Amino acid sequence: MTEQKTRRRLRGLGLGKELGQKLALVLLALLGQKLALVLLALLGRKLALVLLALALLAQKPLTATLASLNPQTPDQMRTLRLSRFGGGSGGDSPEPNVEAVAVPESEDGGDSMVVPQANAPMAATPVTPKTQVFDPALSLASSSPSAFVAGSSGLTPEQVRARRLARFGAGGGSSGPKVKVPRRGSGQGTGVEHSTPASRRNDGDVQGSPSPSRLGLSPAGANATPLEVWKARVVNKWLHPSPPVSEDGPVDVDAAVAQATLGRGHPKDPETPWGKPASGRTPLHFLVSVYGRAQRMAASTTIAAHPGRPEFLAEVKSLCVSYVLLLLEHADSFPQSRESKASGPAGLVPFLLGVSPGMPLPPGLLPAMLAEIETWASERAAAFAAPLFEALWAGVSKLRFEDSEAGLYVRALGALVESKTLARVLAEHPLFLGKGTAIETKAGSLVESSTLLGPFFSLSPLDSRSFVAVTFGPSPAQSLGLLTTRRSGEVGGTWPSSRDEVERTRALVAARHEALVAQLHEVVDKVVRAGPEAREAFLSWIGLVLSSNTARLHSQRASPMATASEGFFFNLACVMVALCKPFVSKGKAKFGLIYPQYLLVTDRVDVSSDTKMAASSRETEAWIDVRNRTAQEQFEIVRTRQANEAALRAAAAGGGASSSATSGASGASGTAEAHVRVPTKFKFVTEMFFLTLRTLYFGPMQTVVRYRQVRSSTHRLMSEMQAMNEGGQRASDAMDRVERMMDAAMGLRLSLETLVLDRRILNEFMQLYAFTAAWLLERADPDGVGVPLAGVPEAFGMLPEHIVDDVATLWHFVLQVEPAALASVSLDLCISFMMTLIGNPVLVKNPYLRAKFVSVMAETLAQEHSVGLAEFESNAVAREWMAIILVDFYVDIEVTGSHTQFYDKFSVRHDIATIVMRMWESSHFRGALGEVPAKYPESFTRFVNMLLNDATFTLDESLTRLAQIRELEVQREDGQGWSALSGEGRAAAEAREGELRSAVRSYMVLANESVKVLALLAQDIHAPLVAPALADHLATVLNSVMASLVGPHCLELKIARPEQVSFDPRALLSDVASVYAALAGEEAFRRAVVRDERSFSLSVFDKMLKVGSRNSLVTSVQLAVLAELRQQLEASSAESSALDELLDDVPDEFLDPLMATLMRDPVILPSSRVSVDRSTITRHLLSDESDPFNRQPLTLDQVIPDEALKARIEAWIAARVSAGKEEVG
After folding, report:
1. Any idea what the CATH number is for the domain that residue 1165 is in?
2. Helix (H) or strand (E) holding 726
3. What is the spatial distance between Cα 1164 and Cα 928, in angstroms, rounded to a whole number?
4. How many helices (H) and strands (E) does the chain have?
5. 31, 224, 734, 743: most buried by Cβ count inside 10 Å?
6. Hey, how many other C-beta atoms are within 10 angstroms of the C-beta on 119?
7. Kind of pairing, strands 1200-1201 and 1162-1164?
8. Which of 210, 298, 270, 281 is nearest to 239 (CA)?
């Protein structure tokens, strides 16, 4: 039975609203709920009014009766009923075990009232006839939050008297009967300790109850001060529509807040004791609102000018904090909806998010709550925070990056872990490492969804079709202007309609992602700083993530259930990189804190199946076995060895072996552990460094590979659409299919570009990898030797290859998409690292990894980049070793061990040729290249031979296909013949032409570069180029190119649009002519040119001079040199022809078995015992170091000069020449 029912009953009897409410209050106060309703039902309206008037007149004057119609507080209302009229029933006091303790109501020894004591014996204190028992709610409203938790008011007599003075305005003075309330600690109280922090308790306050000084009480009585009047007005305003507080005396803030809190329940909750609150408002809403009002008022400058007001507002905020925590901890003890009671601490989540049904928390409230929680025991904090974390996890699991509330959940989590206590609770929560399914199955997707942090890191624009649709519209390709037709109903609205708008939208998305990553970093940073246990839990979670996602490395199309999402790993990598910033920024000073042994002994990262830098699996296992002894075993081994060495030294010196041995052993302990022991526990810097590199390997590095694939797909689709447009298929079903594929590919590409092209992200990644490169360089070359290194340090050789590979991958990618990101790193260290790896094959077993750095070097030296040649010129290692490093690697890449090595080498040599051409612009590097033949003659000879081989092959492939393209073009120009072909025949011919053009373009680029490098080298290097091993080969290549470009069949190479296949015959002929001119003064070169009877002819040479002069392909100086060379070649040709006639019919034993030419310097091959000419075997060994007759290993220094055969050949030549002279004579 409730007050509302009583009021409705009165209105049903015909009483007005105002009178009915007043009558209900009076009847309830006088008779109690049940008796009042019975009276109204039995007697009717008029008789009830008569009895009411008589009752009021019998008790006190009419003025007092009228005043009682609007009591100040519910406590006073109950006091009137209990102390004056003796009303009430057992239903008004629901707690049965409450002892009545007599308290005098007035100072003059009048009527007494009773304060309840929980859990006390019922007969502990005799009750006088005029003493009644308070309702427990009154005791609750009179006590502090902690006393409410304890179930006892715990008041001292002084505090009871102070409360009575504050509530009822009694006069001051100290006379009156003693209060019959037992003191705390007397054995009759509860003895429950108060949990309020000591910093918030004043001296003299009793735990569990506010003191007069804390509450702002004053013994002024009715003579209220202006401050007390202001307090009452503030409280009346804030606590509305609760009963107003009197302004004629001190204000009990604690009681007022408790009263209002208990009076603001859910509107549908029948247990709400006081009035119906505003719709949807709960006690938590009220407390948050009061705190916000107090906070705003305290910020006012006028408040600070009035003494006492700031303190009062601070106390109000303090009480609100206590009651909020109390309400969340003991939600079922407060009058509110069942849903609110069931939610418990999780009811704070809507307030943390600032969304309905909650409200934004005012500034300062949450920090104050967290400060209070810091004083709690860990068990209590865990019980409070666990539901909060679970609610946030459950809520964010339903959201995606594009949802507006996603960031609110991350921000709420970050706000909670500002408390170290709650950060530890988060890390210790069972959900932090996932449910049993995730851990047992090692499924990456389950680890992502089932662990506490997983859903927060899953918020990403990557791998989200809904994100693409929401952000860029249903047709991203149309927005970029890539489609030829607009499909109705698919494009329009508010989506980006141009490339510029797409870029602006992508920038906005990138900014939002940056804010999300910053919040995630803040969360993780707080967790790892919360203590060693929390830090260990986070590192264990990273290890779980990595171990459950190995499928990302082995299959490009792994099952979605097997791995975590792309966005999850990208976010995690960004956060991990941010965590590494403190030691990355310190550079070399932190190298000593990173132990490479970590990857071999830790259980967080499994690299056992990874390819190592320079060690086999067996070598790795042996190295681990030696260093994986226990610390004690290692110490004893080293100590014994050093003790024996010390004893031997002492004996040799004549001293006592025993004493020396002892001293040696004792002095070895520090050194032994420092140089041998592998720790089982590593510093946080070591763990973070390697776990971050591993996370980048699993995440962003794979994303970069995927982005390149998607970009290639979009380029291919664009080419297909262009071909369809040109072929008249613009409105066909095939075009529609390709356009839909383009939409899907472009949407994926835009989502990837949002992150992988973000300059800020690339900059941070590049800083970490620059630090990694510097650390690797110190591990590989601790003494700064540079090139060459005698061996590889074990600690470097056992490292996973992917670490170095990722450095190259990111560096190359940044150079292609955002070279400005290199401005924030030290390129000098990176260049030294690159030179050291390329120039020391012992450090890297994989030649393709060295080739990757060559590609990075070529990209770095590209003209269009802001960084380039100057950085290499200023690097000490590059200045000394760059030329020979490139020359050697050009040769080394010939053999890689792969079945595709023949074609792989061309890509690498293309990069080296690009670098050499760029180096030629530097006077220093040009001079360094010119010194290579003198310092490293064998390397230079092999390099030029490979260069000539490449030029021969690529030119032959290119020119052959050019002739085939010409045939197809002639066929198409013949209208009658072309129209005679069927549609399929014409399509096949066009497809064939496309294939030929693509192949020519690839080969022609390499051919042009090979000839260009020869032309550059010939400017400064003469004799080495025409050495016996190279002269004939060089002359053959030059003559062949010249004959193809200006010979009788040159018109067969004339095709339409030659620039599309990189065929520039004039530039190519200019380079060939410049080589002829540069080497014209070398007799060996002239002889070699005329010996090439297959390609050389004076008529072709004359045509080259004519074309070169007419098209200004050579300078006037070169033209004069070439004219003189033409005369010399004519003379040499005549002499050679005459000698050939004399030396005709060469005996077989004098012929080279490989070239079928007359041997001039025969040598014997040691394994096959075959005699060949030295020039022939030299040229063969430049490409293949084996005996050409039995494939046994062979080097040039192993061949044996065949002196006897040489003597016979020389004698035969002399005889033939002599005979020829006699004939002429």
Report:
1. 3.30.40.10
2. helix 700-726
3. 36
4. 55, 5
5. 743
6. 14
7. antiparallel
8. 281
Neighbours of 646 (CB within 10 A): 21
Token pair recorded at residue 802: 């992917």
C-alpha to C-alpha distance for 438 and 445, rounded to whole angstroms: 8
| pLDDT > 70? residue 112 | no
pLDDT (0 to 100) of residue 348: 92
- State whether the Cα torsion 980-986-992-995 is positive or negative: positive
Lowest mean pLDDT among 181-195, 464-478, 530-544, 1132-1146: 181-195
- Do 528 and 579 meet the contact criterion of CB atoms below 8 Å apart? yes
Residue 870 lies in a domain: no
User: Considering the domain boundaries, does residue 152 fall inside one?
Assistant: no
Q: Where does the pLDDT of residue 177 fall: very low under 50, low under 70, confident under 90, or very high at 90 and above?
A: very low
Residue 1185 inside a domain? The answer is: yes
CB 121 within 8 A of CB 99: yes
- Report which residue type is found at 968: L
Main-chain dihedrals φ then ψ at residue 1187, nearest 5 degrees: -70, 125
Look at residue 483 in the predicted model and tell me its pLDDT.
59
> What φ, ψ does residue 848 adopt, rounded to 5°?
-70, -25
**Quick one: which H or E segment has residue 235?**
helix 226-238
Same domain? For 987 and 1124 the reply is yes
**Is there a single domain that holds both residue 236 and residue 257?**
yes
Phi, psi of 171 (to 5 degrees): -70, 165
Q: Which residues, 6 or more positions from 2, have their beta carbon under 8 angstroms from its beta carbon?
A: 33, 270
Residues 1010 and 1035 in one domain: yes
Q: How many angstroms separate the CA atoms of 506 and 500, rounded? A: 10
Contact 194, 147 (CB under 8 A): yes
Number of domains in the chain: 5
Of 218, 220, 200, 219, the C-alpha closest to 210 is: 200
Tell me which H or E stretch contains 59: helix 33-59
1135 and 1165: one domain? no
Distance CA 189, CA 187 (A): 6
Same domain, 1160 and 1121: no
Give the model's pLDDT for residue 917.
Answer: 94
Q: How far apart are alpha carbons 893 and 853 in whole angstroms?
A: 13
Amino acid identity of residue 383, one-letter, is A
Scanning 436-531, the segments in alpha helix (DSSP H) are 436-441, 444-450, 454-457, 465-472, 476-479, 499-528
The C-alpha atoms of residue 217 and residue 291 are separated, in whole angstroms, by 21
DSSP per-residue letters across 621-656: HHHHHHHTS-HHHHHHHHHHHHHHHHHHHHHHTTS-
Contact 843, 799 (CB under 8 A): no
Least confident of 726-740, 860-874, 973-987: 726-740
Are 1032 and 1063 in a shared domain?
yes
Determine if residue 1145 is left, alpha or beta; phi over 0 gives left, psi from -120 to 50 gives alpha, anything else beta: left
Specify the pTM: 0.74
Indicate the Cα dihedral angle 91, 92, 96, 100, nearest 10°: -140
Interacting residues of 473 by C-beta distance below 8 A, sequence separation 6+: 479, 491, 493, 495, 496
Cα distance between residue 697 and residue 686, in whole Å:
17
In angstroms, the CA 1157 to CA 1168 distance is: 20
Range of the domain at 473: 439-485+497-588+691-697
Q: 1129 and 1177 in one domain? A: no
Residue with tokens 């690697």: 889
pLDDT digits (tens, 9 = 90+) for 587-618: 999 998 998 888 877 778 888 888 889 887 77
Element (H, E) at 98: strand 98-104
- pLDDT tens digits for range 498-521: 677 777 888 888 899 999 999 999
What is the sign, positive or negative, of the torsion defined by CA atoms of 632, 636, 637, 642?
positive
Distance CA 1187, CA 1191 (A): 5
Indicate the residue among 1117, 1142, 1167 that finishes a domain.
Answer: 1142
Q: Is residue 612 part of a domain?
A: no
Residues 1028 and 1096 occupy one common structural domain: yes
